[in-house]
Design a protein that fits this description.
heterodimer; A: alpha+beta; Cyclophilin; 6-stranded antiparallel beta sheet; B: alpha+beta; Gyrase A, domain 2; 7-stranded mixed beta sheet; 5 helices; elongated
């Protein structure tokens, strides 16, 4: 399949599950910010989960499909449409040759994934196809998409070809047709604006003053405009250590909530550096990273403490749901 | 030594609260063990000054299970063993347009620029960890005689290969990035090689020496390698 970029949108990049195994060399993990939506988008077009897809942010791109193509859009509601006809998210959609996919108003969330059957065909760099913007490598020529770029895709699965043919049969003269089924809400994260985010205590939680520890869980934090794929800079109660204490630089991870000397916490996201030296007050539970990934600047977040065992159990339950769903999708024919 | 969770998908082993050579050796021995014998469910590990962080998949492994897999490996580390480290020589063209802050570092320390170059290039440095940027080495072992404060405001772009000084640290920028270090020279050697495996020239535990080269040698090197 061939896809032409008519307008690139605000920040459209090729992403996948991330780049693992080289953090010890300072190579960031990167990959999709909302891994749940990313994985689901791939599953819904019959792709293996590691295939590359497009991550779009706030203002989506305009893409022309030069052949009949099966796609799925998952994540934030960014009002996708084909030639003026709105199309649903979280299900397989056929876009016929000549169809132009556009996006409109941002209704909920701010990031969505466009998976294309067969996956975006870009070279693997250091074991991943995700775009490493700062090092200008990986993804599509190491950068976000630009006007005139032409994307190629890999071979679709047999399931995808059958689904595509069935939708072509149902589409009549329309340039677009969506499957009648979608996925169960029960497996989905509860995406909402101004969410409460579950965290476990960070390694230096006890370093913070009693007041700051209380404020961290009881007050609102505002997501500032200086928030991006690397990290969310928050503003709210000034979080202070009970005494001056220096941390020796060490590894950090997705969801690390670190607090520099100014007292404003930073939550590390997909494009985080591999190491850091600020005290860590908390760690966002992996289960809630997709929800946080959909929060945009200007929103308010609150943090709620859970225990490590619960955080891991929630992940296992979610994974079980995803695996069931994956089998269910393959049986839809 | 203590072991603690770093979120719900990683575990951090801290050997000490001070940066010492002995702690560094423990970090390197554990890193070598993990490289040779990763446990099922382990994804990767990151050695740092006093810690080793191990990332694992919580779908396959609880924290307690990861802890149990690591505990015996860490326990047997107490037996200190000799490690030989690799020495990597990095050619550097000091001063001029490649090292615009060399004069500042010299004046700040009441030295001549030649003395700064000599002090910087006669020492042997130890790579404690790689972080901040791909392939960026945190080096220990720089002489106090050439230390210099960071720039008051960071530069938006520091060219790839720049060799800098900040306080008593020295390092090399493997990619173009913003930064606030005083730049004393530049290497034509690529520290980050995305198409090679492993992608970083240097690794934690390596020893580094800087060798002064002329601008002609710099350009010749660049011409040969690019």
């Amino acid at each position: 399949m061939t896809i032409k970029v008519i307008r690139p949108g605000l920040l459209t990049s090729v992403q996948d599950l991330g780049r693992y195994g080289m953090q010890k060399d300072g190579v960031i993990v990167g990959g999709a910010m909302d891994l749940f939506a990313f994985r689901l988008a791939n599953i819904l077009v019959g792709n293996q989960e590691e295939k590359a897809a497009l991550e779009i942010m706030m203002l989506g791109p305009q893409l022309e499909f030069l052949e009949n193509t099966l796609i799925a859009i998952c994540g934030g509601q960014l009002s996708p449409s084909v030639d003026g006809q709105p199309i649903p998210e979280w299900r397989p959609v056929l876009i016929k040759k000549g169809g132009i996919l556009s996006f409109g108003a941002m209704k909920t969330g701010c990031r969505a994934y466009i998976a294309i059957t067969g996956g975006i065909d870009v070279p693997e760099v250091m074991g991943s196809r995700s775009t490493y913007l700062r090092a200008e490598m990986g993804g599509f020529q190491g950068r976000s998409l630009q006007e005139g770029d032409v994307l190629l895709t890999g071979s679709p699965s047999k399931w995808a070809i059958r689904t595509l043919h069935r939708l072509v049969g149902n589409s009549g003269s329309s340039l677009v047709a969506a499957s009648k089924w979608t996925i169960s809400q029960s497996v989905m994260p509860i995406y909402r604006n101004n969410p409460v985010i579950r965290v476990i205590r960070g390694g230096e939680f006890q370093w913070f003053s009693a007041k700051s520890r209380e404020q961290f869980f009881k007050t609102d934090f505002w997501v500032t405009p200086q928030s991006d794929r690397m990290g969310y800079r928050l503003n709210g109660s000034e979080l202070k250590l009970s005494e001056q204490n220096e941390l020796i630089s060490t590894a950090v991870t997705a969801g690390t909530v670190q607090v520099p000397a100014d007292g404003n916490p930073i939550v590390l996201m997909a494009d985080r550096q591999t190491t850091g030296g600020y005290p860590k007050i908390a760690q966002v539970a992996t289960i809630d990273l997709p929800i946080l990934a959909q929060v945009k600047p200007g929103e308010i977040v609150r943090f709620h403490e859970i225990q490590l065992e619960e955080a891991q159990e929630l992940l296992r339950v979610r994974e079980w749901g995803i695996q069931l769903l994956k089998q269910g999708v393959q049986l839809k024919d | 030594m203590n072991m603690n969770p770093l979120g719900d998908s990683a575990i951090m082993i801290r050997f000490d609260d001070n940066i010492t050579f002995e702690t560094h050796q423990k970090v390197m021995i554990l890193a070598a063990r993990l490289q040779e014998r990763p446990f099922p469910g382990m994804i990767e590990f990151v050695p740092a000054f006093t810690t080793v962080t191990i990332y694992y998949n919580p779908i396959h492994l609880t924290y307690q299970e990861a802890y149990a897999a690591l505990e015996p490996m860490v326990a047997e580390l107490e037996v200190s063993s000799e490690r030989t480290s690799r020495i990597v020589e990095i050619p550097v063209c000091y001063g001029g347009k490649f090292g615009p802050d060399l004069d500042f570092v010299a004046t700040h320390n009441r030295l001549t620029t030649d003395e700064v170059i000599q002090i910087h290039s006669e020492a042997e440095y130890l790579v404690y960890m790689i972080g901040f940027a791909p392939g960026f080495p945190y080096l220990g072992g720089m002489s106090e005689r050439i230390k210099a404060p960071r720039r008051s405001s960071p530069q938006l772009t520091i060219p790839m290969g720049s060799v800098g000084i900040a306080a008593q640290q020295t390092g090399v920028y493997p990619i173009e990035t913003p930064g606030g270090w005083q730049l004393i020279g530049r290497t034509p050697e690529a520290l980050f090689r995305p198409h090679e495996s492993p992608p970083s020239l240097l690794h934690a535990g390596d020893r580094v020496r800087f060798r002064p080269i002329s601008p002609e040698e710099y350009h010749q090197w660049k011409g040969v390698t690019s």
